[in-house]
Amino acid sequence: MSKTWEKFRTILHYKDLRNSILYVLGMLVVFRIAAHIPLPGINLGALKDFFAQNQVFGLLNVLSGGAMERFSIVAMGVGPYITASIIFQLLTMIVPALERIAKEGPSGQQRINKYTRILAVPIGALQAYSLITLLKRSTQGVVLISGFTEMAITIVVLTAGTMFLMWLGELVTEKKVGNGISLLIFAGIVADIPNSIQRVFLTFDPAQLINLVALMILAVITISGVVILNEGQRNIPVSYARRIRGMKMYGGTDTYLPLRVNQAGMIPIIFAVSLVLVPPLIGQFLTQVQNAFVADSGRFLMTLFQNQLFYGALYFSLVVAFTYFYTSIIFKPDQIAEHLQQQGGFVPGLRPGKNTSDHLSKISKRIMLVGALSLGLIAILPLITQGVLGITALTVGGASLLIVVSVVIDTVKQIEAQVAMREYEK
Fold first, then answer.
1. 41-69 pLDDT tens trace
2. Sign of the CA dihedral 234, 93, 114, 100?
3. What is the CATH number of domain 1-191?
4. What is the Cα 261 distance to its own chain's centre?
């Protein structure tokens, strides 16, 4: 405790760092204010009841920090920007021209970021139109927007809200005390925790006291597991040969190559959530069709995905599959082995080149299995909790939990790095 307080005092000692942290907190307050500014043409009471009864939209609402439930000007959050980022991240690994741009360093990354912002605009407009249309067809008396002009204005405002949050995120990132977009998502998720605690007290049943205590213990264990998964890595020993240039000797050092257990991060869960939400949304849309066969098909889809066992099995399988898929794209042992060889590095006991590449690929597949299964288990954790303990009021999604823990760890590391840099300059 004393060490923590000492670190806190050290942070407050540096005025510029203290101002940066206060600036970030101020931007988060601005975000939360924007999340409470509703758009006209929506029956908020009926919309809140709809989100409470609908599991699919309820998940989207939690990830937006309740902004979607209020249908605020930032109801879509930073979802369109994240989608655009994922698209370009994949394209830079597939399209040679974009791959060359990405390898140009900071200037190339700035161009990629520019393209990402541009792509986020049409994606945001499309998602805004889809959200309004789906709500109109899935509910009665919730969406009161009618006519082309009202629809166009609402779409423009929702898209502008996403761009506003993207701008806030970049302002926060410039302060170098955390990733701006991640902190906005973090703030949205954490903002719903007081409401969850309030629901627990309002619906508290003494008969569920044991289950509630078990849930708290499970939450602590889960957070510890997420930290271990997020920080876990396998260190591959690497040695560098000695090189003599003139009268000086270079190299001759021993180090290691870290391979993270969870190399894919949050991307597999985002992909899986995007896919697993599509069928029930389509089912809700089809139930409004006049054709009996199509309407029955829509009801079948909704019934199928309301089955917790089927939903959980599919969700778990998609997370595991996408973990393997995405890791195979971002982790290229051939390039790593080539880079080591060019730098005069080698793995002890292995020849540089193909043997090193095969060894790295073998190790990666082993730790990837652990990472994929762990990530899948975290994703379906809420379903397991609901099924075993029967408590839903305090259930926090595995994806949300992973985001919260990852953002906290990353922010703490960046702040510690800023402190270390200032102490070194002294």
1. 777 777 777 766 665 566 666 556 566 77
2. positive
3. 1.10.3370.10
4. 17
